[in-house]
Amino acid sequence: MIAATDPIRRTRQCLVVVSRDWNAKTGVLRAFERKSSRSAWQTHGPAIPVVLGKKGLAWGRGLVDFNAAVRKVEGDNKAPAGIFRLGPAFGYAPKPAARWIKLSYVPLTAQSEGIDDPHSRYYNQLVDRSKVARVDWHSSERMLRADDLYKWGVVVAHNSPARPGAGSCIFLHVWKDSRSATAGCTAMTEQDLLNLLRWLNPTARPVLVQMPQAGYDATRAKFRLPAVR
C-alpha cells in the first residue's frame, strides 16, 4: 500500500461501505462525521443496505494506491474498492429545484451521456452531447433513463484523471431493488440516497471508503478510519 501522506486527513464526512468478501454483490453503508481532523468519528444516521457490482469488487484508482495485482477494468461488472472523493451530484431535477443539495449539481437532460469508450477524449466523464464540438466516442450510457436509476446520484471519483480502460462512470445511485446488482456502481433506495444528498457537504471533503470487511480492518488504523463492526 502506497501513501506518502494521509489523503483523508482533512476529511470530515466519510461513507464506509463494507462487503462480506470480494465476490459479494451486496454490502452495508454507514455514514460518519467529525468536527475536525483531531476529533473522533461519530455515526450519522442508520446503516444502509446497498447493492454492488454483479461480479463483486476489485481495487480501483482513488486517493490511495493499494498496489494490488487485481484491479478494476472497463466492463468487468465490479465496483471499485478503495478510497475516493465524492461529487458532483446529479439528477433529473432542474438546478433551481435542487438548491437543497450542497454538492455541486449537474441537472441531467436527454443529451447527458456517461462516456465509457476508452478511446474517447471524454472517457470517464459526464457530458452534454449537444455541447460537444466533435463526438469521438462509440460507446456511452444515456443518463436520462426510463427506470429512474439516475433520478439522483453522486459521482464517485474513481479513475480520475482517467486512465484508458481502468473503469468509468462510477456513481452512487438509486437501486432497482435489493436483489439487482449493478455494472459497477453502489446503489441504494431513493430515500436513503436523498438523505445522504441532504447531508453531504463539499466543505467537509467527503469520501467513500469501499472494500471487503477484512481489507477495511487491515486499512482502518493507517488512515484513522471509523470503526465498523
Question: Could you walk me through the main structural features you see in this protein, from its secondary elements to its overall organization?
Answer:
With 229 residues, the protein is mostly beta strands. It has one domain. Helix content is 9%, strand content 31%. The protein is built from 2 helices and 13 strands. It has helices at residues 190-199, 213-223; strands spanning 13-19, 26-33, 42-51, 57-59, 79-91, 105-107, 112-115, 126-128, 140-142, 152-156, 171-174, 186-188, 207-212. Strands 1, 2, 3, 4, 5, 6, 10, 11, 12 and 13 form a 10-stranded mixed β-sheet that branches. Strands 8-7-9 form a 3-stranded antiparallel β-sheet, with no helix packed on it. Strand 1 (13-19) and strand 2 (26-33) form a beta hairpin. It is globular and about 50 Å long.
Strand content: 25-35%
Structural class: mainly beta
Distance between the termini: 23 Å
**Residue share in helices?**
under 10%
